[in-house]
Predict the structure of ABC transporter ATP-binding protein.
Amino acid sequence: MSDGQIIVSGLTKHYKNVRAVDNLSFTVAPGRVTGFLGPNGAGKTTTLRMLLNLVRPTAGVATISGQRYADLPEPLRHVGAVLEASSAHKGRTGINHLRVICAAAGFPRHRADEALALVGLTPAAKRKFKGYSLGMRQRLGIAAAMLGDPKVLVLDEPANGLDPEGIRWMRDLLKTLAGQGRTILVSSHLLSEMQLLADDLVIIAAGKLVRQGTVDQVMDSMAHSVQVRVRTPQVDELTAALVAQNATVTPNGDGALLVSGVDAPAVGRVALKAAVELHELTVERPDLERVFLELTAGKAAIR
Ligand SMILES: Nc1ncnc2c1ncn2[C@@H]1O[C@H](COP(=O)(O)OP(=O)(O)OP(=O)(O)O)[C@@H](O)[C@H]1O
């Protein structure tokens, strides 16, 4: 029951004419930060809402630690969720907002202080919510989700509105929580964010799974776009030798060559065999932004 694994299996949600989520299956492991990534309208929020029993699936099932959310004996102690920017009674202080939730959920009152400290809001404990910045509201939302000390944390676009320092803070917090063995599932439509935040990625487009794996695996799955950057004083000899091995060679304009179709060791071997001197041999990995665009292109029609 406490393993914290999330399993999404054949999950489907149809609204009138829209297949918001379409036979989606993936797993989320405990002890890791999983980025749930997709362009706007891909179906992320709908998926998270089905996971949390807020939307009824048309088909399929989502379980947390082997049970549907609705069947978890103490859901708030098992799963914390931040689905949109935290809202609270405007005149209430941050600490009182959390104490009210503790009282309603039956959590000990001291959890409010602990959760506020966890998100670094202790100095603003007695300030009213209406004076909180968007970043502070996001932090308060996470504090509220953590009140039950949950094994699983689900966050929908938590970095929205955060400045770079706020995003850094969020990354450190989520990595710490994952390091404690918790399952962290965090959605975003922004790649740059996920590149910083996530260990694993689940990428969806138009309600369907596009890729799942570690950040590195997802990158490697796009191996055809990996290029080898090479520099040599014998450009013509090396180009001819590589082309003979079916590699594609493109001058980079700065004196270097970009080679695709063969990996870096192969370029080294070809150069050695052709007695070509190398001054540089590096792997140019595509950035996640490019991978993401390639993966979701054409599937992410604006809906
Ligand atoms: N209650 C609803 N009724 C009808 N269509 C809906 C409803 N909720 C979502 N949709 C549609 O389902 C699709 C997926 O929406 P969803 O909000 O899950 O995507 P998302 O990936 O979270 O996108 P965003 O990042 O823009 O929030 C969209 O086309 C959306 O318009």
